[in-house]
Amino acid sequence: MSRSQSALHGRSFSLIGAVFLVLIAAAVFVYGNFWESRLDDEAFEVLTHARFEVIDDKIAYDFLMEIKPEIAESETLPHLQINTRKFHSDVDAFLGSVDESILPSSKRNELLEGIVFKTWLWDSEKLPKYNCLTPREISEIHSAWEEVVSQIENELPAELPNSFHQFSKPVFDTERKYALIQHYYFCGPLCAKEEIVLYVNKQGSWERVKEYVLWVS
Predict the structure, then answer these.
(1) What's the pLDDT tens digit per position in 122-143?
(2) 160: which residues sit within 8 A by CB, 6+ positions away?
(3) Of 105, 121, 2, which Cα lies nearest the Cα of 55?
(4) Residue extents of the structural domains in the chain
(5) What is the pTM for the complete model shown?
(6) Contact status, residue 195 vs residue 182, Cβ threshold 8 Å
């Protein structure tokens, strides 16, 4: 066999191997989703907690409870998904755009250093005034809204599906004067917004001072 033929066969085997690995990955993904769909709610929650780390910082819960009145749009308490939003990569550019008089560069760096780009879990027992939703319940809300959209030309149901909020794990500077959080609000297919918000603690109260809208629909 010539050298060129050997190289050709080598590339063919590499291609076959790559395709085989892709097929295995796809099968694992599909089977994993199928298996999860068969779990009852309790087992699904156990699996979710096995995957993600639970937020245990008291200041994070105190902060979330304090800003709740600002994001609540009715007397109904906002729904909070059990897993947080990951911070968007635009967070660096957002902080860089904040004026020095609002956020000193030293504090900007502290906030950036505190960001961990991963998904966490909120401890529902530490948020007694929230209605914490599981990922499965969030999926059910999305499916319910899809059903509403499909009926848009007909009579709409008397009650629309729930809305919900999601929050990243908040990040604080060392003195706990500044806080950064990402907030996602969903109230339907064309009613959603995601933003990164900077807060400053003034005389013991958190005040929104700057926001960056990632997208809105």
Answers:
(1) 888 898 778 888 777 888 888 8
(2) 145, 148, 188
(3) 121
(4) 1-38, 55-216
(5) 0.73
(6) yes
